[in-house]
Amino acid sequence: xxxxxxLISPDFTRLWxxxxxxxxxxxxxxxxxxxxxxxxxxxxxxxxxxxxxGVLVAGGTxxxxxxxxxxxxxxxxxxxxxxxxxxxxxxxxxALLAVVSFLPADALPAGVWLTLVxxxxxxxxxxxxxxxxxxxxxxxxxxxxxxxxARAAGITQxxxxxxxxxxxxxxxxxxxxxxxxxxxxxxxLSYLVSYVAIASVRAAPAEKAPVDGSGTGKAAxxxxxxxxxxxxxxxxxxxxxxxxxxxxxxxxxxxxVGALNTLNIFFTTENLGMSAKLFGYVGMAIGVGGIVGAxxxxxxxxxxxxxxxxxxxxxxxxxxLVAYSRQTGFVGGIVLLVLxxxxxxxxxxxxxxxxxxxxxxxxxxxxIAVFQPMTQLAAMVAAALSxxxxxxxxxxxxxxxxxxxxGPIDTIIAVAGLCILLSGLYARGALPDPETAxxxxxxxxxxxxxxxxxxxxxxxxxxxxxxAVRGTAPPRxxxxx
Length: 481
Description:
It is a single chain. This protein has a two-stranded antiparallel ribbon with strand order 1-2. The protein is an all-alpha fold. Helix 2 packs antiparallel against helix 12 (about 365-395) and helix 8 packs parallel to helix 12. Strand 1 and strand 2 form a beta hairpin. About 55% of the residues are buried. It has 13 helices and 2 strands, in the order ααααααααααααββα.
């Protein structure tokens, strides 16, 4: 009988513990960097906002540039050793920056300090592109079955959301009372904890994958070129109608969520009449909704299945976002934001077991390496587009329909909700129930087996938003994703 404190399995529990500590460390680190740049390195400078945004740009650049090719190497390498190596690298980078930060701020020009910060963030995110698919693959080996995989994803998301609530409030006192160095050392120590946790996992033996990524099973020891293996992964992905469909509605959904993330500060202050000082409650509402959704997701998937949970969650969250765009009061807005986040988190959790069973072992790294950069790019484009529309084309927009007034910000957010609704309708047709699935879709064959006319492995997939330093999916960690 498993101990009461065991989550799914002892090995998964060890991974979870490492993630819990490191997620808080990541949030402390990312918040500390923002405070350090804004209040020390660029204090009272007109370019301070641009300097802060550079931290985010550095992380996003690593995801887009390194992410696609990292999957090839992850598919080649031992997954456990890959995770351990990235923890050593990232812990060393953070510790090195912490040591340098003991110098007085005026010891180096601001440009040099910012270069060190951006370079560290870039390398941390680049290393995370190897860590995330490796961790994803190990979880696929440790946890089997849609229900347990959904539970694993739910626990992971709940932990990440908890870190979002705990990390920033912990970072500010550390920064202002002890200094930036100690917040950085705290994160470096979290990488050590994660390393020990990963080292204690008894990972299942890796499957013998075709080394050329083509499915032909060439002799071990022969390696085709990285580009050839990368193209083979793209072909595998492109031949799967199900994987392509999942990517399409994931990108559409990211356009909706990206617009909300960009404009929510303006919506809450202008439309809800909320003081900017209360904006922290918005993050708390999102965190609470995320925790509730993550904890409920496993049971929901068990009741109605991962495929149905996916498209239903999209429809519900899209409708709730449209309703949120019509709010004019603080209380109603916060309540709708919590409700909106619940099905959105259930969605992210439900998609995990689909993606885990979509590709055979030799392609998992490359499948993740396609999803993550594409969804990241969609979010970045959505942020830029929504900001441009709100500041230029729709800046003076003022209209009404059936007595309902529409301004620029609430109109864009309402359209964002409609985008999510559209992706839900698309997913409804693209994610058939198991008994009707064809073409290697869900139910088209057991995981890891070939189905006629489809690449190796069933095309049963989700789009996980793995935005995290350790590949766990909160996309807002400045130190990794």
